[in-house]
Specification:
Among the domains are: 168 residues, no CATH class; 164 residues, no CATH class. It has a two-stranded antiparallel ribbon with strand order 1-2. Strands 3-4 form a two-stranded antiparallel sheet. By secondary structure, it is mainly α. The longest helix is centred in the last third of the chain and has 34 residues. 71% of the residues lie in helices and 6% in strands. It contains 23 helices and four strands. α11 runs antiparallel to α23 and α17 crosses α22.
């Protein structure tokens, strides 16, 4: 390796796997076992930690942990298996968008958007505030709300493919593009208000009413977003002023080369096949509207029943007709819009996850290919080109999965948790909630899944908070903040690694940019936790 040269992202991940393997030789393995106790006539399930040599015979028989050596290589295979759903999701999304990109529809959409922003600059008030700032704030607020309400995370991989070219077209870089979607969503995730995958599970396990403490959570969400958005907008302004200051200036040549498009190079047309695709989709929407006339959209603990599909079919009938009268490009943009709408409806109304979302985008890609009169063979070739283009992103997700595999097979994840939890003994309220927060933050590097971490830590932290006089609600907030901020930097997060792969941002350059923001957010999280133990807050 040359002196001063930053290692390849694959190399960095493999070194982390080696470090994880070394830890399995230093940290004794152990496991938390569930224990049901009868307290005041009520059965309460708790977790009790046992080192490996203290485990009951039946548990010891199934606990096959051992120090990791040559397994660092098999962990690469297991990492791909463990992260297979996200890997397949990335490949399907990449192939689908490549088909859509071939139609030049996204380019037409970006050009139309930029023309619209130019017209806004004639308004003196908007010009003074900055058109770009207003647009970026609107985009970030939307994704932050998605993260706060229904825990948007994996979905940001698909949106990154759209927002990064937009950021490049506006004169920024790929880091700004990732900031608009991934960082914004995870700022919302950290300041979650109604996220069922973190707050819902954590409060349920802590045995407190679901989504209580809403008022203070909303306040925290505003504060976190204000600081995070300012950080992104300040960086964006610097790059807009001098693009060469971006650490991604040379790497972003890939994106800039894809944006070399003008109105003169676009031929506006509408083939007959596009009308056929329009008819098939409309018929499908009508049939689905018949079988599912209403949809229950859940927003945290609230739900509303609405005629989503019938209304969507009606709007599609009108919008599809007029878009095709103009050009197939606008029809394909309508398909993209409907894909995003149904993604939200699917998540909120039908519990969709990566499989359903990937299927939805795949259908969008095929429909886009058919609409521009491509044959089945041509669509298949375009799909494979897209898979090839995004393959490196999928590979790094599999490699990163090997880190968690090593820690799991070494049996030290629970041991790390137990060792950290003992640090909370005999300290004050503020220090206790701060230590809880620090523990959750450290654990998030090892267990990036919020749901899994809640299932492991809350049965331990919640009863312990009673003993030290800290409210269970404060404990949930410590979990919430600890789960959120480090998602933007931890290499074990498959979603982060996938988004960086899609954006073609080396992990080392991302860390260089994001670590000051993460540090500020971690400190801010602690400051926001102090009122939960020093003030009388509703729900705490």
């Amino acid at each position: 390796m040359k002196k001063g040269k930053v290692p390849h992202t694959y190399v960095i991940v493999f070194f982390i796997i080696l470090i994880a393997a070394a830890l399995t030789w230093v940290i004794p393995p152990g496991k938390y076992l569930p224990v049901v106790e009868n307290i005041d006539g009520k059965e309460v399930k708790t977790l009790v930690f046992h080192y490996k040599d203290q485990l009951p015979a039946d548990a010891a028989a199934t606990f096959n942990s051992q120090p990791q050596t040559w397994q660092v290589f098999s962990a690469l295979f297991k990492g791909f298996v463990k992260q297979s759903n996200i890997i397949i999701f990335i490949l399907m999304i990449g192939g689908a968008f490549w088909i859509m990109n071939h139609s030049k529809a996204i380019d037409v959409g970006i050009m139309s958007f930029l023309k619209f922003t130019k017209r806004l600059e004639h308004n003196p008030i908007i010009k003074r505030l900055g058109v770009d700032n207003i647009i970026m704030l609107m985009i970030m607020t939307m994704f932050s709300m998605f993260g706060a309400v229904f825990g948007m995370s994996e979905e940001t991989i698909a949106f990154a493919i759209i927002l990064i070219p937009l950021a490049i077209s506006m004169g920024y870089d790929s880091i700004v593009g990732v900031g608009l979607v991934y960082v914004a969503a995870h700022l919302g995730f950290a300041g979650a208000v109604l996220n069922p995958f973190t707050i819902g599970i954590a409060q349920g396990l802590a045995d407190i009413p679901l989504f209580t403490g809403l008022e203070y959570r909303i306040f925290c969400w505003f504060v976190i977003n204000a600081v995070g958005f300012y950080f992104i907008l300040r960086y964006a302004a610097k790059i807009r002023k001098n693009p060469k200051q971006s650490p991604m200036y040379e790497d972003d040549a890939y994106w800039r080369s894809r944006e070399q498009l003008s109105n003169d190079t676009v031929v506006y047309y509408t083939p007959v096949m596009a009308w056929v695709v329009y008819g098939i989709i409309l018929l499908s929407l009508v049939l689905f509207s018949f079988f599912y006339p209403t949809t229950v959209l859940s927003l945290g603990d609230y739900a509303v029943e609405f005629w989503v599909l019938p209304l969507s079919a009606f709007v599609f009938a009108l919008a599809g007709f007029f878009s095709l009268k103009k050009s197939v490009h606008y029809f394909i943009l309508l398909l993209l819009t409907y894909t995003i709408v149904f993604l939200i409806v699917g998540v909120m109304g039908y519990g969709w996850y990566v499989m359903e979302i990937a299927t939805l985008f795949m259908a969008m890609g095929i429909a886009s290919g058919l609409a521009i009169n491509k044959s089945a063979d041509e669509i298949a070739k375009l799909f494979l080109e897209g898979v090839k283009d995004i393959l490196s992103a999928a590979v790094i997700v599999g490699l990163a999965g090997g880190i968690v595999v090593i820690l799991e097979d070494g049996g030290i994840i629970d041991s790390i948790l137990y060792g950290l939890s003992t640090a909370m003994m005999n300290v004050g309220d503020v220090a206790s909630v701060g230590i809880m927060y620090a523990i959750q933050t450290v654990i998030n590097v090892v267990i990036p899944s919020g749901s899994a971490k809640a299932a492991i830590t809350m049965p331990i932290m919640a009863p312990f908070s009673d003993l030290i006089g800290v409210s269970r609600q404060a404990t949930v907030m410590a979990f919430q903040f600890g789960d959120g901020f480090t998602n933007m930097i931890t290499p074990t997060s498959g979603v982060l690694i996938a988004v960086l792969g899609v954006a073609r941002i080396p992990y080392s350059k991302w860390v260089q940019w994001v670590w000051p923001m993460v540090l500020i957010m971690v400190i801010l999280g602690f400051l926001l936790l102090i009122p939960t133990v020093t003030m009388q807050l509703n729900g705490f």
